[in-house]
Here is the input.
Amino acid sequence: MLYLSEVLNTDVQDSSDEIIGKLTDILIKQRAGVYSSVDFILVKDKKNKKINFIPYYLIENFGKGGVILRTRWSNIIEEKVAEDEYLKLNKDILDEQIVDTEGIRIVRVNDLQLGIFQEKMCVLGIDVSFKGLLRRMGIEWIDVFNFFKVYLIDWRKTQPIHGHLKINYLADGLVKLHPADLANIVEKLNLNEGILLLKTLDNDTAGRVLEEIQPEIQKILVKRLGSEEAAEVVAKMSIDEVVDLMQSLSDEEAESIMNRLPPGINSQRVKKMLYYPEDTAGGLMNTEFMSALPESTVEAVVNKIKESSPQYASILFVYIIDKTGCLLGVISLRRLLIAEKYQTMDEIMRNLAKIQVVDINQNIMDVAAKVTKYNLFSIAVVDKTGKMLGIVTVDDLMRFFLPRA
Amino acid sequence: MSKRFRNFWPQIIFFFSVIGPGIIAANADNDAGGISTYSIVGANFGVKMLWVLFLITFSLAITQEMGVRIGLTTRQGLGGIIRERFGVKWTAFAMLTLIVANLGTMTAEFAGIAASLSIFGISKFLAVPLAALVIWLVLYKGSFKIAERIFLFFSLFYLVYIVNGFLVKPDFGEAMIALVRPSIEWSAPFLLALIALIGTTITPWGQFFIQSYVVDKGLNIKHYRVEKAEVFIGAFITNIVSFFIIISTATVLYKNGIVISDARDAALALKPLAGHFAEILFAFGLFSSSMLGAFILPTTTAYALSEAFGWEYGFNTTLKQAKAFYSIILVSILIPAFLVLLPKISLIKVMILSQDVNGILLPVILIFVMIIINDRKIMGKYTNGWIGNFISLATVLGIIVSTILLILFSF
Here is the structure.
């Protein structure tokens, strides 16, 4: 078993057994779900103190005692290496924080385990144990009774955050994490790392992650991202979350982001929602809901749901509204499923008289009371004229009462 | 309701919520070690050391401001930054320094608890284990913030020293001159008191605490001006209080040749204000501030170490998730509690000497902080200006020189 700490700063000899310098770093390319192979080593020439990139195929022996090259030092031609594309194990990984995608937590890299995998020298694991710390300090012998155990995390299950990152470098496991877990990770990272991680996610995921982040930190992240990039991410957040975020920013900052929102998102709606107080139905509501006209058939509505499903965070009900936008009734997905294809909405819907709605200005406590009393998953929000403006879901209410969960 | 008006309350609340780290850290400076050191400084040397207090007010303000700035720019605690900037070995060194200093201060807090309760006739063999248990339970249950607020409120008691400072009718003219005119006694006791005075005012834990605090609160560089003001005000207030403690003891004790050998003697300084209640008042204040410190210190150690070595931490974790974090807290409580329970130990001496340990170790931490805050890669455009560097460097050198002198004069 070989550890990075055991090879760093060891002597590098060429084929004539002459010591030419010391190993200062190792370059790898990180790809999702594979053990990264060692591509280059950095050797600090002891004569002119210059750092040289030596490709791994020129290495004869690589181990605890040091590195021996296959050729003579003078035969090595200087290589141009696009450093940006590589991660440096010593500079970018060691001592830094990484995301353990399996344990869903952030750990600090105490050491790295190297080894042969498929005939290549690869990074196999990350040592996060106390034993690793002792080894790094050169006092592993202290642990005579082997009291501390080495604890390794599989390299493929981790996500480095430092160094140069590109989207395709993201670990598989990381993308599969729930946005809420990712949000917890971003919150725990320091600002620069958090931003980096957020930037490497695709906008869709980034938007969902940002939604889940604590309001104060959300604010800081958005400001750091700059309005250009923030707008792209914010556009993917649900409207009510955007509204909350905008309310927490200063007028100019909010303005600047709002103006950059892509046309797809209805910034007019966000602006309108900014005027409803936070603790009312209007402030909390989500203006994205599935609606249909009373004369539509079940088949047409089901097709519409299939097409537009990706736009909505969730669809539990279809709201039936007339041409002026007034709410007439509601149909649950279940009712829709068991209805015949040719039936029209007004035949199967629950009438307005039988359902619960809340006024746009109604206090959150009243909304919550109603939702609880009638066991609702979501409730329609209407204005005085009966026009449907949005829905408040149980999720929205939970988020309101437990903002930090 | 208009948008403007709706923003009014959040703004007010925001203002009060930002007021925090600077004031808390400054207030916790007047803990067991603080109050006993200031009392001894006044009782043994009169107003002679006021000039040091004057100078370190600036040092305190500047170093705390640096901690705030690093926290706001990086949103990371000092432990983590040291690890990333300096690697494992230096981190181990810095952490060892912090552990020793913090264990010392924690011992002082327990000594403070024991000394204050002994005024009420409660034996330390009852007081200390009980206090240790309470501290552990509060921290373990995650009620740190509430406890912090309660004892912060109680430790406002120190403001009585300001009133008292006027009642004892000190020679303000003499005090003012002493503030700006350096005078030194070339003796070990004087240097020991001087280092303790610096070490109790500017502390290693204070550096870690304030940085973690701004990070934890989710503040960012936008709040910098408010935070800076708060830190400066905090430094000023705490040292105003220290000033009055010193002139109180200088007038009541020093001028009458009374030497402080236990907490009762220190309480005498409050006689002009509280008469027969002086002892009770003093005991109450000492107890509150010792408790405040006793909550903060284990927490600071545990945060710094966990962050530096990559262990899970924070009070929203469970014991199972964050074994290392809670173990550090537990050990940080148990060892000092045990030390104070040693039969023949002098509580007052513990309180002073622990501050000397703090003072002597402080340069180590300050040098780390200075390198970090001047690193453009970490701080971007928020690196230190020359005033900050000058004052912190002068502080570091001042302590090192005093330490060397102390060693020389001890033989």
